[in-house]
Amino acid sequence: MRNVIDAVRKSAAPVVLLALLTACGGGGGGAPVETAQSCSPNNPYIADATGPVVAADLTVEKQWVRSYMNDVYLWYNEMPNVNAADPLFSADTPSGFYSSIDNYFNALLTPAVTASGKYKDQFSFIYPTRLWDELINSGSSAGWGIEWHFDTYTTTSINGVKIAYVHAGSPADNAGFQRGDALTSIGGLSATASTANAVNTLLGRLYPAPGQQYAFVVNRGGSNVSATLTSTQVAMTSVDYSVLNVGASKVGYLLFNDHVLTAEDDMINAIAAMQQQGVSDLVLDLRYNSGGYLYLASEMAYMIAGPTRTANKTFEATVFSSKQSANNSSTPFFDIACVPDPNTFVCSTNAQLPTLNLGRVYVLTGGNTCSASEAIINGLRGIDVDVRILGSTTCGKPYGFFGASNCGITYFPIEFKGVNHKGYGDYADGFIPDATGNTTDRVRGCVVPDDLSHALGDPAEGQLAAALYMRANNSCPPAAAPSREGTLSASRASTTARVVKPAALSNRNGRMPTR
Using alpha carbons only, what angle is made at residue 409 by residues 404 and 414, rounded to the nearest 5 degrees? Predict the structure, then answer.
């Protein structure tokens, strides 16, 4: 993400950063004891420190960051030499502290790039500890209840802002906003921006803190629709499903948006309902799912494949750096539910999970299909489930972290790489839909754009329609691109149409509940 939002990070107020930088994670490991919880009084999140604090300054907090990164970062031996006294990292003031520590953290990340030219590490990030806990454990996020789609999104240009998804019961839902509505203005500000300052201002309104109020104008089918919304904490709609009657067969459609704690009950209930109705095929919609808890990905994969295919198999093995290789471990295909207490992270149930026992699954993908969502694809391919993907190339994040909190800020450097039962995890440029596919990062499927003109779950919606066509004909529909989709350079990737979600939701969180 840093190639897209570097300029925002350098100039944005914390509220904008909080909205955009939610991306990948877990808990634990390696904090330098000598400076832990030694905090600057200018740190705006010091009150949320997880232990007693010692008075210090920004310099000492940067020392902790450098030491922690050197201990746990997967690419610790690729960290550049950084002058910690650089003015960009040294504003020890109430208004400058967060951007300084964030800039310093980002400066320590590996500068290496993938084969396509994008940063190998686009995913490490920092986040205020209390807000992170609220987001990943409560399943809620501040805002309008809208997932925004951008035709163009760079540090200096935004246009084509549309609504991709509206969370039920949110301010946007209550105002009657719909998928496909095109934003014209917000608070009188045009939804088109062509400078870094204008981009930053617009992002601050699109991803607000609670309590902000703006007048919205959206265009729907050539007519303007206006409403005034007040931002609030929104409970995210992480799971939705339907069962489609296709000829004499029943096909399940499962929308899975976020691997957050509150999603587990809903995804189990959805699979149980499909099992009861005799579903023979499944379309799993991960196009907007940027990841989260890895144990939920494992449960989902088990419920799709069933006990026979997953018996004695590894869902994902985690491979750490040479410094942390003692932590290498394996995650099985979990066959029992958990539903952990968000405070203790101890499971509240050991009920057997329902299963569909499928040897094939159709997955709808996009650039937001990331991390724990990619782990579902990779984990199922590792046990020879026939995975077909319809949409566009996934984000390319075979990595995860645990993270550590210091002085009220949690730091999430990438700590491990995930590989499937066959030992494969080299998809840093994403899983690519391919007409023949089924070789490494090329997966059999079709390139199909996100169809904002139809509701998700509508059989006429482009990606779902392509999946149903492939199910019936074993080929891509005539309108879909059957040829290979090329990988994108970093600069091109930053401008391609996509949905932008909080970075903390784009993650592979390795923390496991106590079962």
Answer: 45
